Amino acid sequence: MKQWAPDARGDGPLALLEAAWGEIVGPGIAQNSYPARIDDKTLLVIARSSAWSHQLSFLALEILRLVAARAPGAGIERLRFRIGPQPTRGRAAPPSGPPPALAAPEPHLEASSPGEALERFREAVERQGRAKRRAGWKECSVCAALISPRSAAACASCQATLEDERSAAVARLVSEAPWLGFAGTAALIDGLKKREYERVRNRLLTRWWATLAQARAAKRLSRAGRERSIASSYVLLKSELSPEEIIPATVRNVLGDELAELLYGTTKG
After folding, report:
1. Pairing of strands 138-139, 78-83
2. Last residue of a domain, one of 114, 147, 180
3. Which of 9, 26, 60, 198 has the fewest CB atoms within 10 Å, i.e. the most exposed one?
4. Are residues 132 and 181 in the same domain?
5. pTM assigned to the model
6. 174 found inside a domain
7. pLDDT, tens digit, for every residue of 114-150?
8. Are 47 and 85 in contact (CB under 8 A)?
């Protein structure tokens, strides 16, 4: 699994969250929890006690939104809480400039309980939300989180999800109808750019060729013979010709004689 960790300069997504944890969740919660690891799109938060872990779980969705706003590139989609000791060494100073989610904290009084700290957190989020609305911030068209007036219609996290879904739709269409080419695919998917189409096309060609090369190396097809359907799609997508234009010579040129012979028998002549 892919795991995020601070890079040599200390400016990776986890380091960013560690430095800004007090701004994200408020000083009361930050003194009793910290972000420990980003693993498989999940942020692990270490809480001081079972009471803190239990209480924080109730605010997981709101904390997740604030975390995504601070570090959208980390791709964090879930939170997980675990009980553990808190660091004894000093935390890194928060980065300069206004925090993206919560206003600068007011003079702090130590919270007497997790419930009190969480209530302060709720109030800070609501206060910051009102301030942002007055400043012209708008709601994400997908999750309704507040985003900058200069942002696109969706927040960074939702935009990434939309792009993933869009790429999957392009991949399905290119796989099922490879002869459409960019123009035909773009006619069915609004706003499709040539670069995005080529990225999906090249990924499919690479994956299909790996399957075909494996069959060629083994000198045999799978029991179901699925390599033939893969080869048909590969030839269409690689050659960018219509099905009517494909002739045996095209198949040999794209696949090579050895693979064409394995798939279809004698193709020369």
Report:
1. unpaired
2. 147
3. 9
4. no
5. 0.49
6. yes
7. 677 777 777 777 777 787 778 787 887 777 777 777 7
8. no
